[in-house]
Amino acid sequence: MADREEQIYPVQFSEQEARIKNVRSHPVTLKFKDVTYEIKTKKRSGILIGDGAYSKSKVEDDSNAKVILKGITGIVQPGEMLAILGPSGCGKTTLLTALGGRRLLGGQLITETLMFTALLRLPNTITKEEKINRTEEVIGQLGLTGCKNTIMGGPFIRGVSGGERKRVSIGQEILTNPSLLLLDEPTSGLDSTSAQQVVSMLGAFADEGQRTVLMSIHQPASKLFYMFHKILLLSDGNPLYFGKGNDTMEYFSSIGYSSSIAVNLSDFLVDLANGVYLDDLDEESRKDVKQGLVLAYKNNLLNRLKEEHKLEVDHNNGLTRYRQMDKDTGQWPTTWGQEFSVLLKRDFLERKHESFSVMLVGQNVVLSFLCGILWWKSSINHIEDQIGFMFFSNMYWSLIPMYNAILTFPQERMMLTKERSSRMYRLSSYFIARNVADLPMELALPTLFVTITYWMAGFKPTAGSFLTTLLVTLYNVLVSQSLGLAIGSMIMNPRTGAVLGGIICQAFLLACGFYIRTIPSFIAWIKYISQNYYIYKLLLGSQYKNEDLYPCGTNVSCRVGSNPTIEKVGIGNEVVSVAALGLMLVGYRLVAYIALKRLRETK
Known about the structure:
Blueprint: E1 2-6, H1 15-20, E2 28-39, E3 42-50, E4 53-61, E5 66-76, E6 81-85, H2 92-100, H3 110-121, H4 128-141, H5 162-174, E7 180-184, H6 192-209, E8 212-216, H7 222-225, E9 230-235, E10 238-244, H8 248-254, H9 265-273, H10 283-300, H11 302-315, E11 320-321, H12 322-328, H13 336-355, H14 358-374, H15 383-406, H16 408-411, H17 413-421, H18 427-456, H19 463-491, H20 494-510, H21 521-524, H22 531-543, E12 549-553, E13 556-559, H23 564-569, H24 574-601
Parallel strand pairs: 6-8, 6-9, 7-8
Antiparallel strand pairs: 1-2, 1-11, 2-5, 3-4, 9-10, 12-13
Helix pairs in contact: 3-4, 3-13, 5-6, 13-18, 14-18, 15-19, 15-20, 15-22, 18-19, 19-20, 19-22, 19-24, 22-24
């Protein structure tokens, strides 16, 4: 396991500097000793029946677990920057995850993205003006002043470049002046100039405030390599070197691995980690090289590292745990109300590009007029047409909100996990802000739909009936959205969630009694847990009473309540329907919240 310890050094700052620049003013010494990580693999067994196919297959536990990390030891002091090198699959990211235990928002400007982070993560002892100044300071440190008013961008919106996006991501972490910073390949995908800017900025960040910085990096250029104070080289989970960057070549030369020609040192190290020396690609030779390097590490470096650990323990006698210090200084940097306000504003800004789009509004308007034309001036004389429209409206405004809601939390899972692990906000403030931010567009589109279709379709021309129909439709949207949130938060897989949601919704719609009037008793109970059943009853009640008459034959009038479809569903008991829907609305959202809370607890 990794030990994280902290020494308190005397630091002299003015009151304002202490509040802004040294939220965490305690340098951290990161020590990790014999870090090992393994996973159990499974194998499939069965009867071979030809063409590589298996019958009666089953999964069995494999007795041989796969070891990802094999006893990694090291120590990084305040003011030092450690680079973890190695080929793909060597265990760099796994090590960082083990040590740290732990998406950018596309619709916001760079300044807004960093400002929201500052408002959420910096404590109330710092004023809002000071938080704004801190944001501007970080933007300057990151070299983002020229593009600070540029939108972050996303899959369908052009925004900042990849290098700028990386720097913003780093800026979100350094805003709070963390004593310890762990970064997974912050230079991947960047050109050499952008990569140098990022590493140079991180080096300055470590030096100026005695912070401890660790990062994994795949294959840095020569100029970058010498910016690192220490290097950890991994190969198949084994450590091959841990020490000062400037001593790397000297060490490998001393154990018989040197290069007679000028090469990029990082290329040379990665080749060694792959078992390639002097361009010998023979498999047996590569295996021998790896084994030799692992043995050399154990014989030449491991004992020295363990001795450094002992000396550091003696020197830091009586230290306080880093994580315990966090708990003692207060659980949350801001109040619940502040969190909710900032998150709500952030969600509004993020969603305005995807929600209030010309495409969505145009699609809704076209559909509304199409329905209005198809049901043009229908009346109680065409009662089957009218109840058909009610069923269509019921179905449409349950399916669309549900499918949209299913995607909500799976799409934000990475962002939520990252921000919650940083203790940026409470889950309750995030959850309620996310629900409230969805309301404007979720309610605006069905309002537009009902306003257009109601009068074109020839329903009761009274304000009361219109408002009732509108409110029932909006109620349908909210309950269906609640169901989608519950499914999405429990499944956390958009494709699986959409399939499950489709099955549930179709079962609910079939149980309403529109398609079939004689439903087997053993399955008829489904209608009582279907929001579509209660919505259908309320929509019928908004237009008809049981005693109303409609033409049911030549010179024959019948009571609306005796219509076969309406009789099966029934008109009346509005209070029961409203109460049942209210229980579903609250219950589904409560299930969604509990599922998100469990997601956090299992991380």
